[in-house]
Every structure is written in C-alpha cells, then in structure tokens.
Amino acid sequence: MVVNFTASWCAPCRFIEPAINEIAAKYTDVDFIKIDVDELFDVAQDYGVQAMPTFLLIKRGKIVDKVVGAKKDDLQKKVDKHRF
C-alpha cells in the first residue's frame, strides 16, 4: 500500500499527481491511498509527516519505505521493490 500525504494548497503535490496516477495504473496490485493532511491532521501527525508530499509504503501493516517530495522515479523504484 502507498499512502500519499498531500494538501490541496501544495504545488509539488499537484505537480506529481499525474505521475502517481500513472504508477497506480501500472501497479494494479498495489493500493494507493490519498490523505489530505488538512482534513486528517491527526493521522499525518501520527505518522510523523512533516513535508508534502510524503509517501509511506506499508506492507503487512508496517512501514517499509518512505519518499518525501515530488520524486516520481524514487517512488516508482520503491513501489517496484516492495510490491511482493
């Protein structure tokens, strides 16, 4: 699972959104979840999110990796690495 912590006012978040949609379409066996930090501030705080976008890769209930920033290539590599 990839959890995308984002905000409507975040320009880098809007910039990377098409890339996230592309990655999600490629990896149909991976769930992609979007969390707006303004709407679910407590959740973002619980996961220690300090910058947006932040992507947490969660496998079997545990965080296995993290990408901070609009880094499409890093995100794709880490999704590919952890998807099985």
Concise account of the structure shown:
Residues 1-84 form the Thioredoxin domain. By secondary structure, the protein is of the alpha+beta class.
Overview of this protein structure:
This protein is of the alpha+beta class and 84 residues long. It has one domain: Glutaredoxin. It is built from 3 helices and 4 strands. It has a 4-stranded mixed sheet. Helix 1 links the parallel strand 1 (2-6) and strand 2. It is globular and about 30 Å long. The mean pLDDT is 96.
Structural topology:
Blueprint lengths: L1 E5 L4 H16 L5 E5 L4 H6 L7 E6 L2 E7 L3 H11 L2
Parallel strand pairs: 1-2
Antiparallel strand pairs: 1-3, 3-4
Pfam families: Thioredoxin
Main location: cytoplasm
Protein name: Thioredoxin domain-containing protein
Q: Which sheet architecture does the biggest sheet show? A: 4 strands, mixed
Mean pLDDT: 96
Bin the helical content.
Answer: 25-40%
**What is the CATH T-level topology?**
Glutaredoxin
Computed Rg: 12 Å
- The level 1 CATH classification is Alpha Beta
The number of distinct β-strands equals 4
The percent range for strand residues is 25-35%
Shape label = globular
CATH architecture: 3-Layer(aba) Sandwich
The secondary-structure element order is EHEHEEH
Q: Based on helices, strands and strand pairing, what is the structural class? A: alpha+beta
GO cellular component, one term: cytoplasm
Keywords: Cytoplasm, Disulfide bond, Redox-active center
GO molecular function, one term: protein-disulfide reductase activity
Family: Belongs to the thioredoxin family. Plant H-type subfamily.
